[in-house]
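User: quick one, fold this
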Amino acid sequence: MRARIKPISGKLAAASRIYNERVKVWLVGKQCAVFHQLPATQCHHRFGRRGRLLLWEPGWLPVCDAGHALIHSTPKASITRGFIGPVGTWNDYERAKKYVEANEP
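Assistant:
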C-alpha cells in the first residue's frame, strides 16, 4: 500500500496557523470594504495567497460574506474598484508590492 500524499505541506500548515491567528486580531472593529455598513468577518486577498502574499497585510481587504461573494462574482468591476489587484500583480509578491508602494498611501 502506498503512503497517502499530504493534503497540505508542513510549511503551509504552519503559515496557515499564523495567518488564522493574525487575521482574527486584524478583523476586530473593521467594516466591510464593499458594504460599509456591515462589519467585516473575512479577509479577502487582493493579490492572491501564494507564498509571502498569504501573510502580507497590505494585500488584505476586510470584507463581509456578501462583499466577498460580490468581489469574486464580478472580477472586472472588482479590479476597477481596487478590490482585486490589476492584471500582472496576482500571485506575484514583488509586482504587488511595487503596485501598492506606487499607488496607495
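User: anything notable?
Assistant: The mean pLDDT is 94.
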